């Protein structure tokens, strides 16, 4: 791969003696291009500006695009000795809303609409409903209570839910009749 080195001043590798001829040879070997102070400042400014834009783009993606990105991944799981009544059951799993000022209950409602459109048999909701502010627990629980599936849905808490007030989150889920499993299991029956 060709490499270019930009420098203000002279380059003298240790292995090359000094002198105009040797400097010319060293510059040719290292592909050094002398640039003026003005060119250097332009390059430094452009580099700084592009870094700022890149960081800004990364922040934009991390806080505003990716959190609202709903993705459906279909996975087939084959289980030996699965009762015949459960053949073809579709389970949807949803998690990590991290509701706060940037991820709203309306965003959660959009995810619920998507889940319902997939027509799963059962939904498991696996935590991280809020980040730190448990005041979002009731609006998020209200949105989740609109999940409509034949075998029901069940929730568990995530680590971020413990950063808020767990009892408020549990109370919101209880208020909207969302089964919250805490060190429990729930048998599912199907005819």
Structure explained in plain terms:
The chain has 191 residues and is mostly helical. It is 40% helix and 9% strand. It contains 6 helices and 5 strands, in the order βαβαβαβαβαα. The chain has helices at 20-30, 37-65, 105-118, 137-144, 159-163, 166-175, and strands spanning 5-7, 32-34, 91-94, 122-125, 153-155. α4 links the parallel β4 (122-125) and β5. α3 (105-118) packs parallel to α4 and α4 runs parallel beside α6.
Order of helix and strand elements from N to C terminus: EHEHEHEHEHH
Mean pLDDT: 79
Q: Determine the N-to-C terminus distance.
A: 66 Å
Strand numbers in spatial order across the main sheet: 3-4-5
Radius of gyration: 29 Å
Q: Describe the largest sheet.
A: 3 strands, parallel
| Silhouette | elongated
Structural class based on helices, strands and sheet pairing? mainly alpha
The low-confidence parts are 1-12
| Helical run tally | 6
Helix share bin: 40-55%
Number of strands: 5
Q: Report strand %.
A: 5-15%
